[in-house]
Amino acid sequence: MEVKEQLKLKELLFIMKQMPKTIKLIFTLERSLFLKLILFSIITGILPIVSLYISQELINSLVTIRKDVSVVISIFLTYLGVSFCSELISQVSEYYNGKFQLNIGYKLNYKVMKKSSNLALKDFENPEIYDKTKEISYKPYQIIQAIITMTTSFVTLLSSIAFLMSWNPKVSLLFLVIPVISLFYFLKIGQQEFFIHWKRAGQERKSWYISYILTHDFSFN
Questions:
Q1: Is 190 domain-assigned?
Q2: pLDDT tens digits for 177-204?
Q3: pTM of the shown model
Q4: Number of structural domains in the chain
């Protein structure tokens, strides 16, 4: 199947329109885990700025003579506590993320199997139907992962701007300009990476199919 080398605005809007449907589907299948991942992504986005603020206070307490040792120790212990919480949340989030991926993959594959029972044998030889059945098992998870990553980045960006505005409002404006400029470059790189994998998909599938036939004596066509 031929794919266009440029992603137009109309196609991008179509992808954005599919996101609410995907979120609705995920809510139907795994609402609890999805909300936990969103909560962890928000906390993960805030913790770096909290850690930065505490480390700043720790350095200031070491430099100035006015604060006694007990204050320095309390700030240091707070910094260790935040670092420990950050690592703990990262591990718990990774666990729930793996569980979420397995549950979503299983439930989506189950839905595909139920729908596939209504298809004729000739439909399974159709490349478009074959590709769609394969995409269903991982595309929603990829979209959700993108949403979670964007949520973490957005929270980190907002907290960074708020932190810098208390120090220098002009510098904080750079955090609004730089991400917008870099966004276009990341989209371009991601688009080119997608097209490279897309063009290799046919050869990779053919290689896998030949390897499968050669290594499984019960498979034939």
A1: no
A2: 776 677 677 767 766 776 776 677 677 7
A3: 0.66
A4: 1
